[in-house]
Amino acid sequence: MPTITTPNTKIDIFYEDTAERGGNPDAEVILLVMGLGAQMTLWPDELVDALVGEGYRVIRYDNRDIGLSQKMEGARAPSLPVQVLRKKIGFPAKVPYTLTDMAHDGIGVLDALGIDKAHVVGASMGGMIVQLMAVHHPERLLSMTSIMSTTGNPKLPQAEKHAMEALIAPITSMEEESLVAHGLNIVKNIGSPGFPFDPEAQRERVLKNIRRSVYPAGPPRQLAAIIDDGCRRARLANVRTPTLVLHGEDDPLVKLEAGEDTARHISGARLVTIPGWGHDIPLPLVERVASEIVSHARGR
How do beta strands 118-123 and 141-147 pair? Predict the structure, then answer.
């Protein structure tokens, strides 16, 4: 699994392309974009395999500042309270990079691989990123699927306190067991109440991701990019890319109303909600999520 440098943003991006491990290089492409502080491995292998089984070439990648992609070493994000306050009073805060930059990164992955068009699928912050791909690069998108994401409308219901606290809790130790406990606490607080996880299997998954990469400096900069981007409703009103919005009815982090708002502000968007689903992709839902993505990609 190689690293490429995006021609447009000049960022080194680590990616996985199923065409490079025996998949069909001529199949239509599905580009998977992960969320805040999440490595590309948070897309379950089972989901990738299901999409490949439906005849697609699947590409997933680590966003800048996370996983094995380029880190913005030395860049400083404004403190969260300062950035929120400046946003409220209409003064911009200087951020190391923007969500639009991250959207350009994704298009740069397609450019580097010689791919003209793709179906783009984003989860959480990844949903925001693919929304901005549709805003800035509509000619490159065959379709868009925004999962567990939002328009950035500040009037929407906010995350449940326990979910947000778990997500943004600082890493206090780089000892492996402490990192595992930190990761499991996030899973516990944002996961799906209707699809409880197997503790041992989840521990192994968290451990695997920790051993792949831990980079505490990245998520605060990504969060700064989210806050800086603000509300996208006016921009989304001009999107004409065929859009599917998938959202859990029991998401404690990005509430259901955020998915409803996303679908409402994109012309022709179709909203699918699933009871019991939180802010993760539990294995029992992989088949359903893959089916919805594929049906949308095929225009059904």
Answer: parallel
